[in-house]
Amino acid sequence: MDTILVIKAIIMGIVEGLTEFLPISSTGHLILAGSLLDFTSPAFPKEKADVFEIVIQAGAILAVCWEYRARIAAVLGGLFSERKSQRLAINLIVAFLPAAILGVLFSKAIKAHLFSAVPVATAFIVGGLIILWVERRHHKGGARDFARIETVDDMSVVDAFKVGCAQMFALIPGTSRSGATIIGGMLFGLSRKAATEFSFFLAIPTLFGATVYSLYKARALLESSDVPLFTVGTLAAFFSAFLCVRWLLRYISNHDFTLFAWYRIAFGIVILLTAYYGLVVWAD
């Protein structure tokens, strides 16, 4: 394997793991990181790089599966006997479907028009402003009065469908899947903890589904020689995501998401300015 390409793959995996579950857009960061690293090459063309960026999400999801392994095992074990487990499984299916259907129908159009620096930067800024608005509304109304759902077990099918509709906005690069589901969940009455945990659980079918679908579509493009590079990136994503998930769960117990909102806005402005003045050539 090309040593430089391996190092780039590790960096991309770390970026994926650190950003997948924060409301700052892993896709947006991967697009920008790939542009800065010049991740594509004749030996690793853009088509393979696009598949790589989706596949390494599996590493981040495995980190969530490991962190919540006891809860996941309990849900699977109770699917045919416990109402609570059945409700959570149904809610995840209902929340998964809107974005999955929309993604299959419009993925080509989205990739053709939105996977570049300026649309991503714009989504960063708009998303940051929405987070600020939701957090301000949350604080103004009082966290307890604002949130009517304290845990994921209290969610109804309608609540899950609303969060699933919010996840559809994450198809826009730079929006953030976790940001859309967490902030959308809070807007629809979930507590910060419930919205965050449901976002974690919803990521499992969403990102595993995207990975399998991407691998199936690219099956003729990939070769056995690509396995080591994909493995390195996936492992890097797993370990960085594992640390990030544990940190985020501690963080939300005493903080809101305002910090991430300002980060999104600042980062988006930097991208727009550097692109406008030609200081950085952000490749499509």
Which helices and strands occur, and which strands form pairs?
Elements: H1 3-19, H2 26-37, H3 46-55, H4 57-67, H5 69-77, H6 83-114, H7 117-141, H8 143-146, H9 157-168, H10 177-187, H11 192-217, H12 227-251, H13 258-276
Residue-averaged pLDDT, rounded?
88
Q: How many β-strands, per DSSP?
A: 0
Task: Please work out how many helical segments DSSP would assign.
Answer: 13
What is the helical fraction, as a range of percent? Answer: over 70%
The SSE order reads: HHHHHHHHHHHHH
| Low-confidence runs | none
Could you explain the architecture of this structure?
- With 284 residues, the protein is mainly alpha-helical.
- 75% of the residues lie in helices and 0% in strands.
- It contains 13 helices and no strands.
- The longest helix is centred in the middle third of the chain and has 32 residues.
